[in-house]
Amino acid sequence: MAGAKHIRDAIEDIKRDNLSGAAEITRRASGVLIAAAKLPADDADSYISTIRQTALSLISSQPSMAPLINLANSVLLEIEKHHERETVRDAVVKRANTFISDMERGAEKIAAHTTDILNNIEAPARILTYSYSSTVLSSLIKAKDSGLELRVICTESRPNYEGKKVLETIRANDIPVTYGVDMTVFGLLSKGMADTVLIGADCVSREGVVNKAGTLGIAIACSHLGIPLYILSGEEKFLPSGLLPYHSIVPHPAGEVLTSHDEGTEVINTYFDTTPLALITGFVTPRGVLNSEEVKATLRKGDVATPLSRAPNDLANKA
What we know:
47% of the residues lie in helices and 13% in strands. Strand 5 and strand 6 (208-212) form a beta hairpin. Strands 3-2-1-4-7-9-10 form a seven-stranded mixed sheet, sandwiched between helices. The chain has a three-stranded antiparallel sheet with strand order 5-6-8, covered by helices on one side. The radius of gyration is 20 Å and the shape is globular. The chain is built from eleven helices and ten strands. The protein has helices spanning 2-16, 22-37, 44-61, 66-79, 85-119, 134-145, 163-172, 184-190, 215-225, 292-299, 315-318; strands at residues 125-128, 150-155, 177-180, 196-199, 203-205, 208-212, 229-232, 272-275, 282-285, 288-290. The longest helix has 35 residues, at 85-119. It is α/β, with parallel strands linked by helices. The protein has two domains: 2-104 and 304-318, translation initiation factor eif-2b, domain 1 (Four Helix Bundle (Hemerythrin (Met), subunit A), Up-down Bundle); 106-299, 3-Layer(aba) Sandwich (Rossmann fold), CATH 3.40.50.10470.
């Protein structure tokens, strides 16, 4: 079936995408679920099964990104409320679209709260950011457009160099920028070249903030130096405890960082690390700036769909 193949190909494209941020990938995942909801089916049971399998496949495609898990869970919860094909289709389409619109409205509120924070810094506000985050970038652009004078520091973000995308966006919006290799951040911070640090997230859970590998080191440095570090995150990235078993940080091919190595060499290539919540100055969310205890209270909430209420047991095979 051409439609089903298109969906499988789209999920595979999401799985291979190592450059896009969580928001962009979540938009594409929403489109995949809507496409699955519009597929023909012989009966209601097989139709619902197809949507469930699509949701599980999306989780396994990017298990480090909480929004995909939350999106899939929210769609699966909607399915449990309906039994007829037509009502399931309408519910899935509405839920997937609403998830994205809520995420986008949330990003606008985060940008407003970020501008309030930067307003309290003597101009020009010197901001260090790390890795690619559409939420951080849109917040910086909106702060600049509001009249704030900014200067941004960003780095390469190896091994895939998504920092170049950050650099291009910052320059295109006429914001002065300093660009360097990743390991320069610690020297720059120690020299007092940044007033504050703004970083995005792929997941916020009771275990910490999952973001680009190196975020933990930056957080430790900021804590030691007394530099504020804010995580800009919509609540679609807040992963309730009941969904935590479906989140994982997976290794990536050794060839991305070392093209040739012998059997005695262990190559570690993970894109993410986990930063304890206590190291974060504040979490800039659509509801305002939250501290770590307020975040923990939020993480205790949330229903889990029946297909996700049990341990994953190799989600990739189940999907």
